[in-house]
Amino acid sequence: MPDFSSLLHGPGTWALFFFCAMLIGMSKTGVQNIGTVTIPLFALLFGAKHSTGIVLPMLCMADLLAVIYYRKKFHRGLVIKPMPWALMGLVVALILGDRVPESSFKIMMGGCILLGVVTMVGMNRSENLDKIRASRWFAPLIGFVLGFSTMIGNAAGPILTVYLLAMRLPKFAFVATGAWFIMILNYLKIPLQIFVWDNVSWAGFLLSLTALPFILLGGFIGIKIVHLLPERQFKLLMIVLTVVSTLFLLI
């Protein structure tokens, strides 16, 4: 059996790892974008590119939890429309990510998140939201950036939030639709990261399994928060957390 314990050193790193797992659970079941905070933390623990392979099984477990809980509330059409473009972005990121050094990979991760933040703030202030949403370029652009950013650094949260905010979905449909979209992409990424990037290992998978109780705990907390938190504060929290995590990653 692979020695997954060697991937982390000391109680402090284990505590940080489990804390991040809890945040992933929360992000999938309600507090979207809080999971973005974990991206620079995982990069600190494992390295930017290697961390995406360790985190991917955790994301897949959390995705499944969210999809099961919100299974009757998602909007199928909003998942299907940008999906072809997301797959295209995923392939482009797969090619680029296999050719760039670790330092450039980290910058690309931060750039994807920052683009999502800027777009999200701009959409919040736009008086022409309906016009933007109906435009021909919106779904293809959003889809491509979603696929690219989720492949580069599991960093699709801000872009996905932009898309779902533009659709003006009710709160639970917002969470459910996002969970389905990202789950499809994450499960498609598994063979790509195993056979192309070679950054998903048995040791990393076993390490992810140790985080399952904390993912479930975070999922429970996320469900409670999405029921309790008012819409306005919900949006503000997502934006603030995303900005902070982006700045941390780019330092």
UniProtKB/TrEMBL annotation:
Entry GO terms, CC: plasma membrane
Query: In which broad location class does this protein mainly occur, judging by the first location in its UniProt entry?
Result: membrane
Q: How does it sit in the membrane?
A: Multi-pass membrane protein
Question: What residue intervals traverse the membrane?
Answer: 6-24, 54-71, 78-97, 103-121, 141-166, 172-188, 200-221, 233-250
User: InterPro entries, alphabetically?
Assistant: TM_pro_TauE-like, TSUP
The answer to whether keyword Transmembrane applies is yes
Pfam families reported for this sequence: TauE
Keywords, A to Z, come to: Cell membrane, Membrane, Transmembrane, Transmembrane helix, Transport
Q: Where in the cell is it found?
A: Cell membrane
What family is this protein classified in?
Belongs to the 4-toluene sulfonate uptake permease (TSUP) (TC 2.A.102) family.
Q: What is this protein called?
A: Probable membrane transporter protein
